[in-house]
Design a protein that fits this description.
This protein is 46% helix and 21% strand. It has 357 residues and is of the alpha+beta class.
């Protein structure tokens, strides 16, 4: 049970933020307060709801002593016996330590793995699945770098996805996605297995990851396309090497060298931020207990079996027999929501173990 003092503290801070926003503050301070207000508002609303339910329970218990009010009090208590545990759990989830990256936009990378042309086609399926899911969430998707497959799909595609809570919802999608299906080119009807790798990188603000000029080497060269097509006549392609880590980002989709450099820096910043997050997570080994999967991009996380029309997420042992809806993007929310719920349950359990210790 969440202590009353903890609820009061949340409401006190929310009221203080609201009062300061109505005062005469600097534009920068107002922006910071607005962000905190948006984060606190659902927590404060839940705290008020829980506080009111607890008060109603206390009043109903007092009413039991009055013979004329006892029946009404029992009905009230029966209703609250269902409502209160739900409100308590909702509040516990809202009070869980928040991942600092949850509100960030993301860089989504989808790469064809083993399986040749079929893997590239599958990478195309996955990208369109996320594109549709993002559309349903009201997010904005912008392709950053595209390498098309020989017969369709993508050898590799990178996109920027922006909107509210993007990383919070997509962060469990990183890993190896496996597909089992009969390729259209397969005359014998044999099922082939191929794979694609998905990486979801939180996109930090420039102030979060500062890249110094002395730490990077920038090479420019002439962009080229498959079969000599789309060859630029100027050195517009950009390759940025981050010297301390050895990370290399190459960008040639834009005709402008300036635009290619800006996109490459954006991706480099996201990769550096991801490296730092991974390092911090390894140092806090306990954190892994409260996460779904390890976050390792070499981990096989999901199988899409077309002949059986099913999708299985191996981390939470969930199988859904609605592959068509999922791969089209309309049904993937059920998988994502289940992963988030499992993560919350694991973190609540870990928190309970810590409290009991």
């Amino acid at each position: 049970m969440i202590p009353h003092e903890k609820l009061a503290k949340v409401l006190q801070r929310f009221d203080a933020v609201q009062a300061e926003m109505n005062a005469d503050v600097s534009p920068d301070r107002f922006v910071a307060l607005s962000k905190e207000f948006a984060e606190l508002q659902p927590v404060a609303e839940a705290a008020r709801g829980l506080d009111e339910a607890r008060r109603a329970e206390a009043e109903a218990k007092e009413m039991l002593a009055d013979p004329e009010m006892a029946e009404m009090a029992r009905e009230e208590l029966d209703a609250l016996s269902e409502t209160l545990p739900k409100l308590e759990q909702e509040m516990q989830i809202l009070l869980l330590p928040k991942d600092a990256a949850d509100d960030l936009n993301v860089i989504l990378e989808v790469r064809a793995g083993t399986g040749g042309d079929e893997a590239a086609l599958f990478a195309g399926n996955l990208y369109r699945m996320y594109e549709r899911y993002a559309q349903l969430q009201g997010w904005k998707v912008e392709p950053v770098s595209v390498s098309a497959g020989d017969v369709g799909g993508f050898k590799e595609i990178t996109a920027s996805i922006s909107g509210k809570g993007v990383f919070a919802k997509l962060k469990f999608e990183s890993g190896v996605h496996r597909v089992q299906r009969v390729p259209t080119t397969e005359s014998g009807g044999r099922i082939h297995t191929s794979a694609a790798t998905v990486a979801v990188l939180p996109e930090p603000e420039e102030v979060d990851i500062e890249i110094e000029d002395k730490d990077i080497r920038i090479d420019v060269f002439r962009a080229s396309g498959a079969g000599g097509q789309h060859v630029n006549t100027t050195d517009s392609a950009v390759r940025i090497t981050h010297l301390p880590t050895g990370l290399v980002v190459q960008q040639q989709d834009e005709k402008s060298q300036h635009k290619n450099k800006a996109k490459a820096l954006k991706i480099l910043r996201a990769r550096l931020y991801d490296v730092e997050r991974e390092r911090a997570a390894k140092e806090r080994a306990d954190d892994r207990k409260g996460q779904v999967g390890s976050g390792d991009r070499s981990e096989r996380i999901r199988t899409y079996n077309f002949p059986q029309g099913r999708v299985t997420d191996h981390r939470i042992n969930l199988t859904l027999h609605k592959l068509d809806k999922i791969i089209e993007g309309d049904g993937v929310a059920e998988l994502i929501d289940a992963l988030i719920a499992e993560d919350q349950a694991a973190r609540l359990a870990a928190l309970g173990e810590e409290s009991a210790a």
